[in-house]
Each structure stands twice: as C-alpha cells, then as structure tokens.
Write a structure and sequence with these properties.
alpha/beta; TIM Barrel; about 15% strand; zinc; A_deaminase; 2'-deoxyadenosine deaminase activity; zinc ion binding
Length: about 325
C-alpha cells in the first residue's frame, strides 16, 4: 500500500508540536531569540524528542522553544497555515488542530486575537489546499481554573468560524476530571464538542469520568482501557472514538513498544479507534509514516485502514455535509 496516497483524517494534532524545523530557524532569527546555534540539526534536536525519552513530562519539554516563537499573530497564523499545507502533502482530507490559547500571552496578545490568528492560518490553508479543518481549544490542567473559564467564554464566539471543541490536556493525574465538572457545565450548551486526554498514562478511571462527567465524545489516547473491562465496555457501548498515537505513546512510555499498542485489538473488538500523530515535529512522524509503521508491526490490512478512516470521519467534529464528502473518499481504498 502507498500510505501517502491513501486519504486520511487527523483528529489529534497539537499546533505547537508541529512547527517545521526550517520555520523555527527563520522565526528565531526574526524574533532575535538568543540561542546557542542555528544549525538545522541543533534546532531539530531542540524540537524532536529522543527515542530514549523517559516520560510524558520529558516529552513535554520539547514544546519550550516552539512556544517562545508563537507569541505573535503573524507567527501563529503562519504555523497554522503550514500545518494545513503539510497535511495536504499527506493527503489528509480533514484535520483538527488543537492548541492552548493561554500559552501565547507572553507578549501581550489577547485570547481572542490568538484564536483568530490560528483560524486565519487554517482558513488560508483550506482555500489554497482544500484541506478541511477544525480548531480545538485546549485547557491545561496546571493552569488556573478561572483562566480556563475565560478560554471557554471567549472561544464560544468562534464556534461558527472554525472552533469545534474543548480539550483538557497536560500531565495526567488520577481523578483530575471531577475538578472540571463545573467548568464544563455549559460547553455543550455553547456548541462545543468535548475531547479529553485521558487514559494515556495508566488511569482508566479518567476515561470513565471524562465520558460520564464531562460528556466526552472522543478520548485522546485512552490506551489504559485495555486492562479495565468497565472502561472498555463504556467506550465500546457509547461509540466513543479513540484518538490513538502509537509513536507518541512509545516515546512517553505509555507503552513499551509498537507491538504492545492495542489498536489492532480495539479494531477487532469494533472500538472506534483512529490513528493520529499527536505532534508531527516532536514525535518526528507524519500521519503516513504512522500508518505505515503500525501496518508493518501490527499487520493491519486494507479493511483495517478503511475502518480507521471511517472511524475518523464518524468522530470528526464537523458538519454532516463535510462528513458526507469525506466518506466519498472511502472508494479510494484499493
């Protein structure tokens, strides 16, 4: 199979983890950022996690440099636009990009202008390359709750302009969901969909809580349900879509190696699993490469990849009209 030619849907991709190395070098120069070297390999090492990464927390350190470069409207717009362009090159038909607006306030930007900048880049990319997209606003667990509410209140203005969902992300703690029940009370009323990072580092009860308490329709990662019958059955019975990122999971030590990733079992058990990159640059992987690696190690067949694509369309936070167009691409799986 030529995985680059197969149509794909990407539901879990962080903007700040997907900046091009070449763009980072240009923006370092533009922003006069002090750094030891502008050598390509040196900057790449700053952005890409080592294969021997020891934990999720160590993985998250690779976002330090990108965030320093994402503090202006122009830079945010450019990076969003380039991610759409990169998606086009991978034959991604629809992508949902996620980012945390509160991480881009260091130079005086307001939350609304931050969101607008990313949406402009995505819209420009869609017009030029035809890739449909949606924007997910992330709330990070270590940030103040009142700022989380602010993101939700401001972000709702843009739901008809490209914002599609709210996410909770960051280093995972057991039982974190209950703390956000009141903050999420009105999100569905506002028109947001909900996807939650949960069950990434072993806490399957977080998946149960994300669904039952916060109304999550999708779960980021969710691999911990493999060893929890209650969580597994809940995900299956409610048709919850899992945004699965095998390479990232290996790097963060959520699993030891590709062979241990549960996506094949989940597909066999009719759980709506999808394949995603998490972070193109930090994980040093394209969606085509993720598909190819998973196939090589787990032996997925064409029907499996067709199911992954259909699961992605099913879980996409887009209109019925866009879903209908996306499903036409199933005929391309040959």
């Amino acid at each position: 199979m030529d995985f680059k030619k197969l149509p794909k849907v990407e539901l879990h991709c962080h903007l700040d983890g997907s900046i091009r190395v070449s763009t980072a070098i240009e923006l370092i120069k533009k922003e006069n950022l002090e750094i030891e070297s502008l050598d390509y390999d040196f900057i790449k090492k700053k952005l890409v996690v080592e294969d021997e990464c020891n934990s999720l927390d160590e993985y998250l350190e690779k976002f330090d440099l990108p965030l320093k470069l994402m503090q202006s409207e122009e830079n945010l717009e450019r990076i969003a636009y380039e991610l759409i362009e990169d998606s086009f090159k991978e034959n991604i038909k629809y992508i949902e990009i996620r980012f945390a607006p509160l991480l881009h306030l260091e130079k005086g930007l307001e939350i609304d202008s931050i969101i607008e900048s990313v949406l402009r880049g995505m819209e420009k990319g869609e017009k030029q390359f035809g890739v449909k997209s949606g924007l997910i606003l992330c709330i990070l667990r270590h940030m103040p709750k009142d700022r989380a509410r602010e993101v939700i209140e401001i972000g709702k203005r843009y739901i008809k302009d490209g914002v599609v969902a709210i996410d909770l992300a960051g280093s995972e703690l057991e039982g974190f969901v209950k703390e956000y029940k009141d903050i999420f009370e009105k999100v569905e009323q506002y028109g947001y969909k909900v996807t939650i990072h949960a069950g990434e580092t072993g806490f399957s009860n977080n998946v149960i809580d994300a669904i039952n308490i916060l109304g999550a329709k999708r779960i980021g990662h969710g691999i911990a349900i493999l060893k929890d019958k209650e969580a597994f059955n809940l995900v299956k019975d409610k048709n919850i879509v899992l945004e699965m990122c095998p390479k990232s999971n290996v790097q963060t030590k959520a699993i030891e190696k590709y062979e241990h990733h549960p996506i094949k079992k989940f597909l066999n058990e009719e759980i709506k699993a999808t394949l995603c990159t998490d972070n193109n640059t930090v994980s040093n992987v394209s969606l085509s490469e993720e598909w190819e690696s998973t196939n090589k190690i787990q032996g997925l067949d064409l029907e499996d990849f067709k199911r992954i694509y259909i699961n992605g369309v099913y879980g996409a936070f887009c209109s019925k009209e866009v879903k209908k167009e996306l499903l036409k691409e199933v005929e391309s799986f040959k």
